[in-house]
Amino acid sequence: MSKIRMYSTAVCPFCQRAEMLLKSKGVAEIEKIRIDLDPARRNEMMEKTGQRTVPQIYIGEVHVGGFDDLAALDRAGKLDPLLRGQA
Q1: pLDDT tens sequence across 13-68
Q2: At a CB cut-off of 8 Å and minimum separation 6, what does 80 contact?
Q3: What is the number of other CB atoms lying within 10 angstroms of the CB of residue 12?
Q4: N or C terminus: fewer CB in 10 A for the chain?
């Protein structure tokens, strides 16, 4: 299973929904990078992704985007292969 990194905050409903979707797919561990606790990590996220909102999700080295992007990948049948490292 690919490594999952997610930039998030403590009170982000879309972060929680993304985590629930990933866990329903068998993901056991998500590296959460809390940008609300560390402003330098927020800057890092914005430089890497060009986005200001959370969540920003990486599966392996692939930047997926936010929850809507993650859900769209799932609906298109592309999330499972990406999680297995077959992207």
Answers
A1: 999 999 999 999 999 999 999 999 999 999 999 999 999 999 999 999 999 999 99
A2: 25, 74
A3: 20
A4: N
ω before 13 within 30° of 0 (cis)? no
63 within 8 A of 56, measured Cβ to Cβ: yes
CB 33 within 8 A of CB 7: yes
What is the arrangement of strands in the sheet containing 62-65, beginning at the earlier edge strand? Answer: 31-34, 4-8, 56-59, 62-65
Q: What's the pLDDT at 86?
A: 80
Q: HSE (CB half, 13 Å, CA atoms) of 30?
A: 24
Domains in the chain (CATH in brackets) are 4-83 (3.40.30.10)
Q: pLDDT tens, 72-87?
A: 999 999 999 999 988 6
- CB of 45 within 8 A of CB of 7? yes
Tokens 């999330």, residue? 79
